[in-house]
Amino acid sequence: MSKNIIKDEWIANYMTHDDAIHKRDIDPYSDSPFRIYKEMSSKRKGRYFELLFEEYCDNMGWKVEDPKNTDHDTMINGKKVEVKGSLLWGTDGSHFRWQQIRPAQDYEVIVFLAIYPNRIEFHAATKEDVSKFVQTPNEDGFFIHNQHGGKTKNSGTFFLDGFPQDFPFMTSLDTLLCN
Q: Are 173 and 122 in contact (CB under 8 A)?
């Protein structure tokens, strides 16, 4: 028998094997405390993102109230707030994707949770700024942020792909929720 082997009973001692078992090469959340959110259904995930945001605001001493209607998720310091969250997309964590952005709904501020494997960042924007950005067609007349029905018409539902720094309208929560 060859001496140049790895037996099955030895493989558990190899870090490379452990990386393969835990999918560290394809899942940036494999060892993250935020992995639980990645594994949730979209609806459940959205609800937990709202709750995390509300709890954060409560911990900051901000006034958290129930929404006035179903067009927004919560009220923070008297402002109607819609919450959108995203974990990294793609096997290489190439971007975030915030979905179901609906400018026709009744809210003033949209909060974006960027959930990295080692932290959650909160970013805010006015409804007006986000609406203008997603509803403006490109030079070819296409609605490139349109979520449904193709790019040739404004469906009323949009998405953003990228990182917070890619969107100049994203700012700190304090700027929009504490004035």
A: yes
DSSP run (H or E) holding 100: strand 95-101
Q: Is residue 34 part of a domain?
A: no
pLDDT of 133 above 90: yes
Structural domain of residue 112, as residue ranges? 41-177
Instruction: Assign 65 to helix, strand or coil.
Output: strand
Cα–Cα–Cα angle for 86, 92, 96, rounded to 5 degrees:
20
Note the residue count of the chain: 179
Distance in angstroms (rounded) separating the CA atoms of residues 3 and 67: 68
Residue 140 contacts by C-beta under 8 Å, 6 or more apart in sequence? Answer: none
pLDDT at 149: 84
pLDDT tier for residue 1 given thresholds of 50, 70 and 90: low
Residue 82 lies in a domain: yes
- 162 within a domain of the structure (yes/no): yes
